Amino acid sequence: xxxxxxxxASINSLVWGIPMLVGILGIGxxxxxxxxxxxxxxxxxxxxxxxxxxxxxxGEISPFNALMTALSATIGTGNIAGVATAxxxxxxxxxxxxxxxxxxxxxxxxxxxxxxxNFRETDKLGNHxxxxxxxxxxxxxxxxxxxxxxxxxxxxxxGFGIGNTVQANSVADALQASFxxxxxxxxxVLMILVxxxxxxxxxxxxxxxxxxxxxxxxxxxxxxxVVLALNFAAIPSAFMLIVxxxxxxxxAQGGFAGAAVWAAIxxxxxxxxxxxxxxxxxxxxxxxxxxxxxxxRQGLIAMLGTFIDTIIVCSITGLAIIVTGSWTxxxxxxxxxxxxxxxxxxxxxxxxxxxxxIFAFTTILGWSFYGExxxxxxxxxxxxxPFRIAWILALPVGATQSLEFIWLLADTLNAMMxxxxxxxxxxxxxxxxxxxxxxxxxx
Length: 443
Fold this sequence. Notes:
Blueprint: H1 2-15, H2 18-34, H3 38-41, H4 43-50, H5 63-74, H6 77-90, H7 93-118, E1 121-122, E2 128-129, H8 132-140, H9 145-179, H10 183-198, H11 201-230, H12 235-244, H13 261-276, H14 283-287, H15 295-323, H16 333-344, H17 348-379, H18 384-400, H19 404-442
Antiparallel strand pairs: 1-2
Helix pairs in contact: 1-19, 2-7, 2-13, 2-19, 4-15, 5-11, 5-15, 5-17, 6-13, 6-15, 6-16, 7-8, 7-12, 7-13, 7-15, 7-19, 8-9, 8-19, 9-10, 9-17, 9-18, 9-19, 10-17, 10-18, 11-15, 11-17, 15-16, 16-17, 17-18
């Protein structure tokens, strides 16, 4: 087992190394330039479309619920523990690189959704299916099918880690530490709740996500604003720290070990991608089910996911950690975020625990759909029910077991999902540019 772990760690350092970070940022920048920075310029248009009831075309869920389903999978432990980890290893400057990753990632997420809707199919049950495996198959042709199959294999396996057992473990740890609830009890309750939702497929998943995600996001954001308001005087210096140490090393302070610029870039970009999933190819699987007749319109809504996840939610976590001075405490992960909130708000640790539990629960729901569609692509609709049963049974295991190896495996497979997706986006970029120009020429 030690040998396997060491081998996996070597692969992980390779796939999350400089080539991957350059690839994710490079493809994102290429798409931003090719689109004339439209995703940033049209941010307001995206929000207007999000709240406009316009469900013309075929699909199973509303454009709004498609975004909420995608956000349910992306807003999770990465927004609470991931941001804290980035700052612990990379210093305050890591938050700057998370922002840059998000601004670049908006073009990537937009392009993913455009391709997903444009190249989606209807399965034997009459449901719309799409995502990287389908836009590779239908957009690039028969000789590239193997690449779509590779994505589906990586996604189907990775889901059981990053979207299932890891999330269940995070919920169990948070509830046990704050409320004394046993991990086994948490695992059983999760199994029942998730099972009840999965019976209804994407329609029920999207309905639950459409209610829980906005409620919890607004609640967490409000609590974060309270922390910032109570430390208002420290906000200007916090921004100075973030910008300064995005480009210059930072020395050791208190329990903080110090960080080079490369650490700020590496952990900022990696945790940013982990949080908003731009470039991984997961979110377009949800957007392919949207009721729409316009790939571009859904793309404009999809890109909001990256903005909301990183620019809004991750920023609240990062700024709270910095303005309270908690980043020099030596704490890491969710414990660091908990310290920041509890130092400013009485009972702040309970706010973080509940937020982490609900975010992780919705992530389990969102990723169940991603994994299901990957498995369906590989084995057909007959695999849906066995997949759902396996997904539900894995939750108590994740809640009660040590998951260092699972974390490593899931993180590695996440990166390997990105490789086929980034290749496809680069090759299909002329289609994205053409559809975009055509849409805005008519509007």
